[in-house]
Automatic annotation (TrEMBL):
It comes from the Bacteria. One of its GO terms (cellular component) is cytosol. Signal peptide: none annotated. InterPro entries: Cys_rich_dom (IPR004017). Pfam families: CCG. This is Glycolate oxidase. The lineage of its organism: Bacteria, Pseudomonadati, Pseudomonadota, Gammaproteobacteria, Pasteurellales. One of its GO terms (molecular function) is oxidoreductase activity. Residues 3-85, 135-218 form the Cysteine-rich domain.
Length: 243
């Protein structure tokens, strides 16, 4: 199957390993991965900050880029996928009906990585191996906005050697929320502090998530508290070799 890869800004600039492992994982599962070089930022930071009108030009560029073919588009970040799926309503709001129609066709082809693997490829066990105890943090964009809740859990439960632990208030926001963590820094700081306290209760070896932004936020707090918990994106976990 031919698949477009949408790298996302954070994976491109901050977490190249997540992008690399996403591509390797898709190839391992039989996909021919295509990278359209004109792709850029989805505009999520501007949209979340109320500057949607200023983001329209970049949104149009992204739509045009992925109109080059009609293959599925896979990204390792639910927040970006959700932002793109809201394009049609933003274009409609500013009277850009033609662009709204074009954006919907592109948005309908966008998938979070775990959603694509489980629901499009029909794969629940990718043959990964990672010994140890782990907790999973579901990002708000992934499970609240996109409704993707069981797919990451299904994949992680099939990682050999990995014990997946429940945590208190697992679905509570980590406090990142894009620009929320900047504008409401004190509140955000208390939220991630609480999240880390819940994560550390059973002293897991790994914190796993499917959104890089959340992992950076929680990972930063873990580091400041000196917690020896390794932070991993699910794409990195699923590429750990079977023993």
């Amino acid at each position: 199957m031919n698949v477009n890869f949408y790298v996302t800004c954070i994976a491109d600039v901050m977490k190249a390993g997540v992008a690399k492992n996403t591509v390797l994982l898709l190839e391992k599962l039989g996909c021919n991965v295509i990278f359209l070089e004109k792709q850029g930022c989805c505009g999520q930071p501007a949209i979340n900050s109320g500057y949607t009108k200023q983001a329209l030009a970049g949104m149009k560029t992204l739509v045009e880029t992925f109109e080059e073919n009609d293959y599925p588009i896979v990204a390792p970040a639910g927040s970006c996928v959700y932002a793109i799926k809201t394009y049609p309503e933003h274009f409609e709001r500013f009277g850009e009906k033609a662009w709204a129609e074009r954006a919907k066709k592109v948005a309908d082809r966008f998938f979070d990585l775990t959603d694509f693997i489980v629901n499009k490829l029909g794969v629940k066990d990718v043959g990964a191996y990672l010994p140890g105890k782990a907790v999973y943090h579901p990002s708000c964009s992934l499970f609240r906005k996109l409704g993707i809740k069981e797919e990451p859990i299904t994949l992680l439960k099939n990682v050999k050697g990995l014990e997946l632990l429940p945590i208190k208030n697992q679905e509570t926001c980590c406090g990142f929320g894009g620009t929320f963590s900047v504008k409401m820094a004190e509140i955000s700081g208390e939220m991630v502090k609480e999240k880390v306290a819940n994560i550390d209760t059973d002293e897991p070896d790994y914190l796993i998530g499917a959104d890089v932004s959340c992992l950076m936020n929680i990972g930063g707090r873990l580091s400041r508290e000196g917690k020896p918990i390794k932070v991993m994106h699910i794409a990195e976990v699923l590429m750990q070799g079977e023993k």
